[in-house]
Amino acid sequence: MCWEMRPQLGTTRRAIWRTWPVLCSHHKLPTSSHSAKKVSMATASLPPAEKKKTKKKDTVIVISGPTGAGKSRLALEVAKRLGGEIISADSVQVYRGLDIGSAKPSAAEMDAVPHHLIDILDTTDDYSAGSFFRDARRATQDVLDRGRVPVVAGGTGLYLRWYMYGKPDVPQSSMGITSAVYSELVSFRESGQWEEAVELVARAGDPKVLDLSVNNWKRLSRRLEIIRSSGSPPSAFALPYNSFHEQHDPELTESSADGNCEATKLDYDFFCIFLASPRIELYRALDLRCEEMLADTGGLLSEASWLLDIGLHPNMNSATRAIGYKQAMEYLLHCRQNGGESTPQEFLKFLAKFQSTSRNFAKRQLTWFRNERIYQWVDASQPFEPVVQFICNAYHDPDARVVPESLEMKRESCIHKTQDLKTYRSVNRVFRGDDNCSHVLDWIRRTQGK
């Protein structure tokens, strides 16, 4: 829970939440705020020798937000105006052929602005936060070396956290360890004994393995490899993110902040924006987005059918666990088992599941990023042009990096009482009745009855 959600802690804590992203750069706050004056005075009191030691870092813009918030459009326009290139922080856009379900940029958009880490893997491959850290850092430096502006855009929270703070320094497995772990788990995997395999790893010394998503065999194997290599579970190794925040106490107050906290720790000067909207509004937009992905049978359904055709199954790897693809593959498998037949009720049930899963994912994203203090929250419902202009101005003038109140989204505004969410009901705007499903059911009959 973020500090702004706790009124009993007073205004000092809320001020730190608002100014933290600026405190975490090597630039002083705007002198218009009371806390900024204190930070500026603290920075000004540093000896000249210490000031000279502070080397100006390259600025990297990070634009995140929940699925469907409009972060890709915002990143595209910012990159156009600043002479930037976009580095995708999306765990599904890395896969070739998964275009509609991942809301991948169009060919025209990628022609207008260079994009990185899109279409770099086959759907049979796995991808991880560690892989993203390596690839995104390499792409960032490449963009900077060519005098361009890196704009990192995406909503995969762990990817972005590792990208900015660093990845855990866990031991690499030798070929012998990897082979031995494969031998330990192969019989469980081939027989579909996921729970038994999890129990084996838990007994080996990693009780937190119970929190893994079902059938995530790659991550399960990696956890066992770490145990076999080091004798310790993954949780025994310090996370750079946690270490950083332990060094920079979250109980910082205006009087103790020195305005220089992260400058000597992070590799770049990260300017981070989180684009958000009230949850009910976001849910309505997501429900419609799900419908639109299914309305054209050449979209998500066609891509999910292709995944099945090449021998993949739901939950088999990163691509088939992705929201939308997993649900569509499960639905199409059911249709294939019925000879290519499906009823409107079955289709609408699948759509409702897709929508519900998407909303739950957005909720988890909001929860995750509420606790990421480096981000400033921007209201996605505000006019587009002022938001773009603020980001561009803040890039050129780091002293202007605090979001103006007219554009700010309060973190607590994305929280609704349980009763508010209980009364939410999805109302379809494309598939309003059985007749609206007929073209989809015809497509299923033609293509899934093989």
UniProtKB/TrEMBL annotation:
- One Pfam family here: IPPT
Which InterPro entries does the record cross-reference, listed alphabetically?
A: Dimethylallyltransferase, IPT, P-loop_NTPase
Q: Which GO terms describe its molecular function?
A: ATP binding; tRNA dimethylallyltransferase activity
The cofactors it requires, by name, are: Mg(2+)
Q: What is its EC number?
A: 2.5.1.75
Q: Which keywords annotate this record? A: ATP-binding, Cytokinin biosynthesis, Magnesium, Nucleotide-binding, Transferase, tRNA processing
Q: Does the keyword Kinase apply?
A: no
Would the keyword Magnesium turn up in this protein's UniProt record? yes
Residue segments, region Disordered: 35-57
Please list every transmembrane segment annotated in the UniProt record, as residue ranges. Answer: none
* Catalytic activity line of the entry: adenosine(37) in tRNA + dimethylallyl diphosphate = N(6)-dimethylallyladenosine(37) in tRNA + diphosphate
Domain of life, per UniProt, equals: Eukaryota
Instruction: Give the similarity note.
Output: Belongs to the IPP transferase family.
Q: What is this protein called?
A: tRNA dimethylallyltransferase
